[in-house]
Every structure is written in C-alpha cells, then in structure tokens.
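Handout, page 2. Input:
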Amino acid sequence: MQKKFNVNGVCYPDRHYMVDLDGRLQKIKELIEDGDYFVINRARQYGKTTILRALKEYLRQDYLVVLMSFQKMSSAKFRDEYTFARAFAKDFIKKAAAETGNQRFDRNSLVKLEKQCQERQGSFDLVELFETLSDICTAAAGKVVLMIDEVDQISNNQVFLDFLGQMREYYMNREEIVTFHSVVLAGVYDIKNLRLKIRPDEVHRYNSPWNITADFDVDMSFSPKDIATMLEAYEADHHTGMEIERMAKELFACTNGYPYLVSCLCKKIDEKDVNWNVESLRTAVRDLLRERNTLFEDVIKNIRNNQTFSDLAEQLLINGANVIFERSNPVIDMGEMFGILAEKDGKAVISNVIFETLILNYFTSVRATKALINSEYIEKSQYLYEGRLNMEMVIRRFAVFMKSEYREEDGTFIEQQGRLLFLGFLRPIINGTGHYAVEPQTRKNTRMDIQVFYGREEFIVELKLWRGEAYERKGYDQLVDYLEARDAQQGYMVSFSRNKKKPKEDQWIQYKGHDIFEVIVEC
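Output:
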C-alpha cells in the first residue's frame, strides 16, 4: 500500500507519512518508568490518539498496556457508578484479553471480573471494581500501564470524579496495594481543574481529585526538523526534487507546528501533484482557509461563544496589544487549552498564521459594513488585468470608498476599524485566487504589514496612522526593512489621516532602492 498524508484519525507508520516520534516516546516512557500518573492535555487534532497508539507499541516489550477510550462510552454509561463500573470492566477485559507476547494477564483474574459484572449488575460499584483491578495487577506477569483516550468526554460528571478519586486512593497507597504502575490520560480539557455542577441551582466550582498528576511537558508540536523527517520519507518515495529544509521551515512558519495543519497542507500539495515549493504551499494555504472542517469550526465557535475571548483575540490581531501570558487568567488558559493562543517572549499571541487569518476572516465577515455589501468598489474585475492583481488600483479605490461611503452618522471615522475595513475591502477582491496574512512582528498600534498573495505574486501593504512629516521617513524605513526581509522590490503604504484636508497626494516614490506607492486615507 502506498503511503499518504493522513488527516483523519490515527496515523500508522506503515500507511502514513509521519514525523519521527521516537524522541517523544522516549520522554514519555521515562515518566512511565518513574511510575507517574499524568495527562496528555492538548488541543483537538494535535496527535494525542496517534501518540497513545504509538506509545502502546513502544512499551509492549516492557509493560502490559491496556489502551481504552471513553469516546465510545455514551453518557448513559455514566448515569451511576454501577453502570459505569460494569461498562469500564467489560471494556478493560476485552482490551486486556487481546494483549499478546511473553507477558500476559492472568486469565482467572479476568474471568473473576467478568463474573462480577454478570452476577451483580445493580450492585457492582467502583470500590469493588478497583479491588478486582488490583487483583488483576497483582496476578499479571509484569507491570500494568493503563491509558485512557478522550478522557474528558464526560468530565463534568460526578461518577467520573468518583472514578478519579478511587484511582487516586490506590495511587497514594500503592506501597501496600498493588495497582497500575502508571496511568496516562489524554484529552483536550485539563481534568486537574474540572468544573463540576452537581445541581441545577449550584454554581460551577472546581472539584477534581486528580491532584497527583506529574507535569507533562513533552512538546507535541512539529519543529522544522520534525517536519523534515516526514518530507524526507515522502521524497524517498516520490523524488520530487523539493528543497526539504526550506519546505519544512515554510510549513512551520504557516502552522507553528500544529500537527493537523502541517499534514493538511502536505496532503493538499501531494494531491494536486504539483512542485513542492513556496508557491504550491501558498495555494494549499489558500485552499485550506476556504474549507470547513471541525478544527476551524471549533476555533470560530470559541471566538463566537465567548465575548471576552473574542475581544482579546481582536486586540491581539488588530491592535497588536501586549498582553502578558498568564495561565491563571481563565481567558488565556482557555485559549491555550484549545490551541488558539500561545506564549511568545512572555506575551500572548494567536498560535499560528493560519488561525490568525481564519479569525481575521471571521471578524471582517461579521463586521462588514453596509456600504461594502453589493458595492461597486469590490467588483473584482476592475482590479484585474490578464489575471494579475493591480494593487495600486486596490488601495486607490479603497481611499475613495472610505471618503465617499464610510462615515458614521456624525461624520467621524472610527480609527480602530480601519484595519478591519481594509481587510474587508480586500477579501472579496482576492477571494478564490488569493489570500492574505498579517505579519505579527509589525502588528502595533501605529502600523501593520499585510502580505497579499495573488497567483504567483506577493504584495506587501503597510497600514499605519499618519502622524506628520516627521514620522514619514521612519515609516518608509520600516517598510523597506520588511520588503528586504521578504526579498520584494515594491511596497504599498496606506496611511489613515485624521486631518480633514488630505496632507498630500497619492504618489509613487523611490526610497533606498525600492518603489513605494502611498495613499493617504482621509478619516
């Protein structure tokens, strides 16, 4: 079977192109060797299930591993401890009985557990479940490691908390009672800080007995070096002639190593059967941003359903706000848990360029002005010539649109909306063929650099506030620095001016060997 890039479900080394997991597996094994109980707490589609499956095989020679998942257990199985205990026992027996190799579970102890489930349907509780699990661990021909995936499926349930409580008691007394050598739980939510609401009239409160867990600090994102190992395997099969190191760095720059996003982009390039280069990657990014998938829907859902988080995302993206990354802040903690926020130099940032663009697209869509709807200004044919985008015309017409159409009732311009308005103006023009990205290093209150990709061309547009002639040279220097970093000759500058009279006319200038076109937007 020919290998492929996989974005659906578990990845298997014999069927899918994967990064080399050995380094991560060895670090996790060290935790297990120490007898730790810990949680792999990462965002959706971050490779948790794949790492658990790989870990099971990695440990097989030294441990008896039972890998379970709560995803298959319906909420009905959690309605009381007797129902849960029986459901858990049945699944445990099934998984333990399937273990093969030199070290095996004792069949008699598994049969005992099975008989208890059958004979005591309404009275087999968690205490008896763990007593019998202890007997199984005692009789086993080796140390037992329990791994449970999707453990947060029913995490706000008292039965689940009681289950964790029993596991904690056995952990605390394992010098006297034989129990699981190590327990590995995996899920999105941090079950160390569960919010539980027992009765309808009771406020949410934190109440988790899972305070015995060891820190899990294994980096599960893909570094450029990790991505290169996957591309090397692909290149060995397909001989495309790609520059592996460069492609790995470019993929990382787009995704910040988010596993699902890396695999998605690789899959798109592979399926189009095109050259593996920067241009094909840009096309893959554009196509990915136009799709609906569960990860993107989850990101937008968290923006839409939490106004405080939405406000924070807007401040970070539009105004370049400096927000200290503090996990005790519940909004930042939630953003990191869902993989939307990350820490950079002690500050909170959106975790990757693709999420940035996705969220910006959402903001520009829901806040589109009435003046833009069915407006002649966004008819894309006027900006295209022989399939190429005329960026000079785009920003000229944007300035005219702002002057003639976009005014509040009192005739004033809302300054902080200028950036969203430009992106809202730009997006329908380039939609279908191009896309944009915002350079995070320049997202300050005074300026923002935007990369616009259309066809094979890249345009650099700087948005800034007009602060007088004294600041003009500094603005040009900043734009030139960015142009040189992007190896670009031409740049465009949109300056928002509060002056009622336009300070100067639109113009092309030559500056330090670069061509810059500047438009002043009267606001």
